[in-house]
Amino acid sequence: MDAPAPSPPKSRSLATTLRLGGTLGLQFMLLGIWLPFFAPYLESRGLDRDRIGLIFAGMTIVRIPILPWIGRAADRWNRSRLLIGVLAAASLAAFSGIFLVDGFGPIFGVLLIYICCSCAVIPLTENLAVVHSAEGRVDFGRVRVIGSLAFLGTALGVGHLLEAQPISLVPVLLCATWALVLLSTPILPEMSRVAPGAEGRLSALGLLRRRDFVLALVVAGLVQSSHAVYYSYGSILWKDVGLDEGTIGALWATGVLAEVVLFVFQARLFKGFKPSHLLMLGAAGGVLRCVLTAETDDPALLFPLQCLHALSFAATHLGAMRYLQVYIPRDSIATGQALYSSIVTGVFLGLANLLAASLVEDLGRLTYFSGAVSCTLALLLGLWLRLRKRRKERLGLVDVERLA
Question: pLDDT tens for residues 24-78?
Fold first, then answer.
């Protein structure tokens, strides 16, 4: 039975917020380089769009078995900071291989090794923020804002830089940022040790026996998978219609700025919202975003449409993090976070990338309609999740969800 955790004490620390947010910010700088500019970089290496889609799908799927294993190790050892440092060092070493290989097969191989090392770094850091938020030491939304702002500044800055510099600079910037991530890991706060709860420390399989948890993962996965076309092909499709790197970077940054606003004001905006409400809000925003983005390539319309990222991504992610914070036992939360990342960004986003790769050559931006379909299904399943929770509340099977 999913029982909420006790209310956290109110003793938030600015220092802890900055320590978590600073390291997470450096990690999000990686995303600010990778998401807008790595696909165009691969295209400059002579890879066609089908093969780029296969690379991104492969990188997404390979994390599925990796993430739960690392999350379980983090819960068992309770040494997340050390684990993040080891994985950051391995990621830097693995990605450096991109300079030594050429052709689809070798590049694909290097990137598969790289994603095995790097895929858990952000989830483990976010898990530290979730745990410290549950203990009342930080506000998760404020920690996440620092990461979002770092993404925004990086996407804008690198976009302008690449107007004057060759796209081959992208892997150099990624290696330099990984070095900074590695140097920042010692400042991360560790988690306090906690004894296993009454159920014992839950394995990934134990968590997957919780039907409502699985349903929440499916809802979040369907919404987040709607971003597959945007993440893998958004920059390429915009470049096809004549947008320059600066404009493309600004479009990415606009979405993240909207995300930042939501995270900053989430406590006020969503007072009284339950996790399932946030998941449904994200799904509704995803339907609207995908349908309208499929219909236009006019920057005057794309910029306001990018603001819907605040719903399709940020509200969905916040709803999932609140669900973990409320319903997953403290001694199993890293495993829950890893399952979220594995299933949502592995299974769902990986399959969506494969679908996008098969459609984008023929349909172009109309491929965004596939995301609208998945978000519609997510909205219906989110409503079912809310009704299940309400029924349990009425029968006294579970305490009313609280806002964490």
Answer: 999 999 999 998 899 899 999 999 888 888 898 888 888 888 888 887 777 777 7
Burial of 198 (0-12, 13-18, 19+ CB in 10 A): exposed
Which 3 state secondary structure label does DSSP give 6?
coil
pLDDT recorded at residue 218: 94
Pick from 127, 125, 119, 153: which is nearest to 256 by CA?
153
Which pair of structure tokens corresponds to residue 233? 């092909």
Q: Is the pTM of this model over 0.85?
A: no
Closest CA to 81 of 20, 138, 145: 20
127 near 74, Cβ under 8 Å?
Answer: yes
**Which amino acid, one-letter code, is at 296?**
T
C-alpha span between 360 and 40 (Å, rounded): 15
Token pair, residue 203, equals 């394995």
In degrees, to the nearest 5, what angle opens at C-alpha 139 toward C-alphas 334 and 13? 100
| Exposure on the CB side of residue 383, measured as CA atoms within 13 A | 6
Closest CA relative to residue 56, chosen from 34, 71, 77: 34
DSSP labels, 333-362: HHHHHHHHHHIIIIIIHHHHHHHHHHHHHH
Tokens of 190: 């560790």
Q: How many degrees, rounded to 5, is the angle at CA 336 between CA 389 and CA 67?
A: 145
Asked if residue 318 lies in contact with residue 203, where contact means CB atoms within 8 angstroms, the answer is no
What one-letter code names the amino acid at 250?
Answer: A
Helix axes 211-225, 368-395, angle to 10 degrees: 160
